[in-house]
Design a protein that fits this description.
Length: 432
C-alpha cells in the first residue's frame, strides 16, 4: 500500500463530525476506550520530525472518587453500626400493660324511649353497672404519662433515674445523670410509650428498661399514678358539681331558717300563736254577741209596745243590752281597732311572714331534690381505670434489633449517597 504524507492526508480527510452528547451524566457513563472513526486517517503514517521527542503515554487516571465516597459514607458507618449493635449495645427489656378508662353511666327511664316500665328497669345494680368508655379522659392519661408531672409523682416512691443510668449499660443507651430534667423527659418519652386504640379506647403502655425487674416496677408505678390521676379528676369533677348545688341548698336553707325565726319572734311579741284562728274565733264570738243583741232589742221593743218599761225584766234586759254593746265594741276594736293593736294588722303581718316561710320551704325542698339528683348523677359518672393486662416479667430482650437495625442504616445511607451522587453528576453535566 503506498504511503502518503500528513499534509496529503489532511487535505483528503472528510469534514469533522461533532460527537453526539451522551444522555447520562458523565459520572455514570461507562468509561470505555474511544472508538476510532473509520476514515482516511487510519492509513496515515506519522513521520516524526527530526529533533523532537514523542510524548510519553499517560499511565493511570483520576482517583476513584465514587468508590472512596461510597466507602466513607456507606460502608464505614454501616460497619460501625453493625459492630455497635452486635457486640456493644445493651439488652433492653419491654414490659407491656393494657388498660382502659371507664365511666359508670346510669340509664334513666327517659333513655328507654317508651315511657313505660323504664323506671323499674333503670334502677338497681343493673343501672349502676352500666359502664361506658371515656375516650377523652383516656387522652388525658396518655398525655399525663408523657409529662413531667408523672416523673414528680413517681420520684416520690421510686428512683427511676437510677434505672436508666446503670453503669453496666452501654454509653449510647444509658442516660447521663449530669443532663437536665428536660433532656430526661425526651429520654423518658423514647423509653415509655402509651398510645390509644381509637376504636376501642384501650391504652397500651410499653416500658423499656435495661433489666426485666425495672421494666415491670416502672410499669406498675405508672399504672398506679394514672389510676390516682383518674380518681383525682373524678373527685374534682364531682366536688365542683356538688359544691355548686350544695351552696344553693345552704342558701335556701338559711333563707328558710330566717323566715321561721321571724315568724317565731312575731308570735312571741304579739302573743298570738295563730292570728288567723284568733280572728276566726273573734269573728264567731262577735257574731254571737250581735245575735244576742238583736234578740234583746227585739224583746225590749215588744215590752215598750206593751208599756212595761217599769218592770224589772225591762230593766234587766236594758242592762244586758248595754253589756252586750260594750262587749261588741271591744271585739270590734280588737278586730279593726288602732293600727298597731288591731288583729287585722297582726293577721296581715302574720300572713306575710307565713307566705315567706312557705316560699322558702318550697325553695329549700326543690334545692334539696336537685342536690340529691346531681349527687346521684355525679356518682354514676365516676371514672375508673380498668387494667385487664397487667405487666409481666419479660423473658428475653426485645431491643436492640441487632441485625435489622444495621441493615436499615445501610439502606438509608445508600439512599443518601445515591441522591448526593445524582446531584453532583447533574452539576457536572451543567458545567460542560
Amino acid at each position: 500500500m503506498p504511503k502518503i504524507t500528513i499534509e496529503e492526508a489532511i487535505d483528503q480527510r472528510s469534514p469533522r463530525v461533532k460527537p453526539a452528547r451522551h444522555l447520562l451524566p458523565s459520572l455514570f457513563r461507562r468509561r470505555v476506550p474511544e472508538r476510532r472513526q473509520h476514515n482516511d486517517l487510519e492509513e496515515i503514517e506519522y513521520i516524526p520530525v527530526p529533533g523532537t521527542q514523542e510524548p510519553a503515554p499517560q499511565s493511570g487516571g483520576k482517583p476513584p472518587l465514587r468508590l472512596l465516597s461510597f466507602l466513607l459514607m456507606v460502608i464505614l458507618p454501616f460497619l460501625a453500626s453493625l459492630i455497635y449493635y452486635v457486640f456493644i449495645a445493651s439488652d433492653q427489656y419491654v414490659a407491656e400493660a393494657r388498660f382502659a378508662v371507664r365511666a359508670l353511666s346510669g340509664t334513666s327511664s327517659d333513655d328507654k324511649g317508651d315511657g313505660s316500665g323504664g323506671s323499674e328497669n333503670s334502677g338497681g345494680p343493673a343501672g349502676l353497672l352500666n359502664m361506658r368508655s371515656a375516650s377523652q379522659d383516656a387522652y388525658v392519661v396518655t398525655s399525663f404519662i408523657r409529662s413531667t408531672e408523672i416523673l414528680k409523682r413517681i420520684g416520690k416512691k421510686l428512683d427511676y433515674r437510677s434505672m436508666f443510668t446503670r453503669e453496666d449499660a452501654d454509653f449510647l443507651s444509658r442516660f447521663r445523670s449530669s443532663k437536665s430534667d428536660e433532656k430526661f423527659l425526651d429520654y423518658w418519652q423514647n423509653h415509655v410509650s402509651a398510645y390509644i386504640d381509637v376504636s376501642s379506647g384501650i391504652i397500651t403502655l410499653k416500658v423499656r428498661a435495661f433489666t426485666p425487674d425495672d421494666s415491670v416496677k416502672l410499669s406498675n408505678a405508672i399504672i398506679q399514678e394514672s389510676e390516682a390521676l383518674i380518681n383525682e379528676l373524678s373527685q374534682r369533677a364531682r366536688n365542683d358539681i356538688v359544691q355548686s348545688m350544695q351552696a344553693d341548698v345552704e342558701k335556701s336553707g338559711k333563707a328558710y331558717a330566717d323566715t321561721l325565726t321571724a315568724l317565731n319572734q312575731f308570735q312571741h311579741q304579739s302573743g298570738l300563736l295563730s292570728p288567723e284562728a284568733q280572728a276566726k274565733d273573734s269573728s264567731t264570738l262577735l257574731t254571737g254577741l250581735l245575735a244576742q243583741k238583736l234578740e234583746f232589742e227585739t224583746r225590749l221593743f215588744v215590752m215598750k209596745q206593751s208599756h212595761a218599761e217599769g218592770s224589772p225584766t225591762y230593766q234587766q234586759l236594758t242592762l244586758a243590752l248595754q253589756s252586750l254593746d260594750a262587749q261588741i265594741d271591744k271585739k270590734k276594736s280588737e278586730l279593726t281597732g288602732p293600727e298597731n293593736a288591731s288583729l287585722a294588722k297582726a293577721l296581715l303581718e302574720y300572713s306575710r311572714l307565713d307566705t315567706d316561710r312557705v316560699i322558702a320551704e318550697r325553695l329549700y325542698e326543690a334545692s334539696q331534690r336537685n342536690y340529691d339528683a346531681v349527687l346521684a348523677e355525679a356518682l354514676r359518672k365516676t371514672l375508673y381505670l380498668a387494667v385487664f393486662v397487667n405487666p409481666t416479667l419479660p423473658d428475653e430482650a426485645v431491643f436492640p434489633h441487632r441485625i435489622t437495625t444495621p441493615l436499615i442504616i445501610l439502606l438509608g445511607l445508600a439512599v443518601v449517597w445515591t441522591t448526593l451522587s445524582l446531584i453532583w453528576a447533574s452539576v457536572q453535566d451543567h458545567q460542560i
